[in-house]
Amino acid sequence: MKMYFTDNQSPDTGRRSSVISTLLKIRHDKKKEADIPMRAAYNKVQAKTNVQTKLECHFGVTPSRATPEQMYNAVAMAVQDILSVQRREWTEKQNRSKGKTAYYLCMEFLMGRSLKNHLFNLGVTEVFADCVKDFGFDLDDLFELEPDAGLGNGGLGRLAACFLDAAAGLRYPLYGYSIRYDYGIFRQKVVDGWQTELPDFWLPGGEVWLTPRPDEAVTVGFDGEIKDEWNGNRHSVSYSGQHVVTALPYDMMISGYKSGAVGVLRLWSARSPSFDIGLFNQGDYMHAIEESAMAEVISKVLYPSDNHIEGKSLRLRQQYFLVSASMQDIIRKHMERYGTLNNLTDKVAIHINETHPALCIPELMRILLDEHGYEWDAAWSIVTKTTAYTNHTVMHEALEVWPEDLFQRMLPRIYQIAHEINERLCKHLWIYYPGDWAKIASMAIISYGQIHMANLCIACCHTVNGVSTIHSNIIKTSLFADYARTFPEKFTNVTNGIAHRRWLAESNPQLAGLIRELIGNAYLTDAGQLSKLRAYADDPAVLERLAKIKRANKARMADYIKKAEGITVDPDSIFDVQVKRLHEYKRQLLNALHILHLYNRLKSDPQLDIPPQTFLFGAKAAPGYLMAKYIIRLICSIAKEVDSDPVISQKLKIVFLEDYRVTMAEALMPAAEISEQISLAGTEASGTGNMKLMINGAITIGTLDGANVEMHEAVGDENILIFGLHADEVDQLHARGYSPTAYYHNNADLRAALDRLNGGIGGIRHTEISNSLIGRGSGQADPYMVLADFASYCGIHEEALKRYADPAQWNRMSLLNIASAGIFSADRALTEYAQRIWNLEAMD
Ligand SMILES: *Cc1c(COP(=O)(O)O)cnc(C)c1O
């Protein structure tokens, strides 16, 4: 078996390999909780007074007459007040320190809910529970009134949210920047198996967490023409016919767990810069209104594609809007503090999370050149030492390119600068690769009429990182191999992490209670301490309690499903969970085919002795991604077919959960027993859902892909169920010429499952899917090698059932997964970014 992650992999469990020990070496300079001045203990009497005041001042009601919505808002406002005071102190401290600040730019932050998280971080959950109880309300019910802040698609946006939590908890001075979309990720409805999208109008309930800062609004210019041309290092620029949009900041405060720090996520909202008086004066009222509507469209809606570029001009407008507003903000703050930009590199770290905010590079150049009179080389030196870039995908359809003519028309000055960067880059590359035009073109920022955003980032940024060891290696050896050979020192890895307090302590309070009893609460600020749980791996009483907690969480999830979907599931069946965006590379289809295989087996042998299993799916498909929608429809029709069979429905249950989102994930992770992480090896950059499930004690069925590789390493071969082709085998198979039909002909089980697709399931023939797998359509058949991994996948499921039949063994595995999940804390990941990429210090 070939390993990808380390040179000195020990052949047995690999538990002490180099990667892990590097990760463990990162020190968490945590202050002891007692050292941190918690605001003089906040008690119930104060909480009640404050909530009552909010009710009276904002809603004109007494607590006894308040609606639940009013009570939720009043509690949220009272919490905002606590945070505001801490925020002011924290900001002052930061300003006094004159240390470095990091700015994390991302088009997505998938925040989920805030209230419960703030109460937990501030240590006042009990206080507020008692407070609202006295007013006749239940705090958990109030939590349910908060809409998710769904300003992201999936893993990328959730990672950004987890990093904000970690930074605040660790007292790192870090700001997030993004867009205040009026509509977040769409709400998903499934009607007769077909996904439909509804607008997510989250602001009425979510706006309580946003503070507008009109005093810090900036303007962003688009379109028009540049008056003066570029000439060498000297230039002067003026614009004509520009469209100007106002960027109005809304701040969302980010609490840190018992840290006293309060971070800020600044979200820009697009406004018309007051009606064009000129147009009004000409009597062109309608035109003036139209212009303002055009401006505001920019922050109207989040693009709902995950791992796929959306080459729409509005998307490019959004990107530049975010980047220009944020860079102006960063520069203004810096100038206020230091009065010069010469020290920008020492005081500012700018992070480009995925290429979407890559335009911050030419935008920063523009500000330095045009507004602060820097010469090119001095400006370039500042920009390159200040910016770093994280790549999140190797999928080709996700690599961002923009048509040169669109780019030039919309952003004429930024285009000039990008063009100049490209000229100088290509000259530089010529030294390395004289005459090799093909190579230089492939590394260029502008080539064949397209702007390549990843090349812009790699050419400029001082550091480029992937998000798991295998992914970072693929970046270096394949995706950006030429760049990695040219500038090897730029490339590194930081494996993703999750906010373990949210995903374990807050989502799974019973498990948190058990852990506290066994090893104390130090793991909350030092996730590595979870490893102390290993001492209980063979303690039958502990394992029994662990199983009871899982059972209780399953029962709670069953209630949730009953309420949300009207579907009954058996909490004594095995909960097998695959939740993530719907994508062919993530292979929900492999899971579905295996279920069809089980169905076939039960059809031919109704007495077959297998335990009852519930397969839970949750996944949004990009609205224009037809195959993804067909796969949702397939899952729903398998569910229907199975339900209609009185015998088989005793053994199998399939549920497609509508509208998978952060809040649903928080309920689901604690209830999962099997975690499906089954992407084709080499396609998933890291995954973070895998980590959330692991830390809640689910056993992973997974390929050696993304962070699964490091999970395997951390937990040991015997405690994870690995199957399928390895990344190098996938490459070899592609090179040999992959033929899915061979698998079809050679595997009777697979043939039977695929034949069902054509024969009709739940009244529908799924020929689009079967054609995509065995090549009766156009394009490469079965591009993600579902058929190649089918046999191996069925085998690992049999192994899982065998293990499940021995509860002691299963619970032991579960405990060891929890105990090994500490390195996947976002605290660890963020500390790596701070120390190895940003050179950023935590404040004392
Ligand atoms: C964690 C999370 C994801 C990412 O899941 P992966 O399995 O890593 O793709 C997506 N959506 C939501 C709502 C999440 O919480």
TrEMBL record:
Q: Name one GO molecular function term.
A: pyridoxal phosphate binding
Which keywords describe this protein according to UniProt?
Answer: Carbohydrate metabolism, Glycogen metabolism, Glycosyltransferase, Phosphoprotein, Pyridoxal phosphate, Transferase
Which cofactor does the UniProt annotation name?
pyridoxal 5'-phosphate
* CDD domains for the chain: GT35_Glycogen_Phosphorylase (cd04300)
Listed under GO cellular component are: cytoplasm
UniProt catalytic activity: [(1->4)-alpha-D-glucosyl](n) + phosphate = [(1->4)-alpha-D-glucosyl](n-1) + alpha-D-glucose 1-phosphate
Q: What Pfam families does this protein's entry cite?
A: Phosphorylase (PF00343)
Tell me the residues on which N6-(pyridoxal phosphate)lysine occurs: K692
Question: What SUPFAM superfamilies does the database record attribute to this sequence?
Answer: UDP-Glycosyltransferase/glycogen phosphorylase (SSF53756)
Instruction: Write out the coiled-coil annotation as residue ranges.
Output: none
GO annotation (BP), single: glycogen catabolic process
Q: What is its EC number?
A: 2.4.1.1
- Keyword Lipid biosynthesis appears in the UniProt entry: no
Family membership, please give it. Belongs to the glycogen phosphorylase family.
What does this gene product do? Allosteric enzyme that catalyzes the rate-limiting step in glycogen catabolism, the phosphorolytic cleavage of glycogen to produce glucose-1-phosphate, and plays a central role in maintaining cellular and organismal glucose homeostasis.
Which PANTHER family does the entry mention? GLYCOGEN PHOSPHORYLASE, GLYCOGEN PHOSPHORYLASE, LIVER FORM
* Protein's recorded name: Alpha-1,4 glucan phosphorylase
Source species of the chain? Ethanoligenens harbinense (strain DSM 18485 / JCM 12961 / CGMCC 1.5033 / YUAN-3)
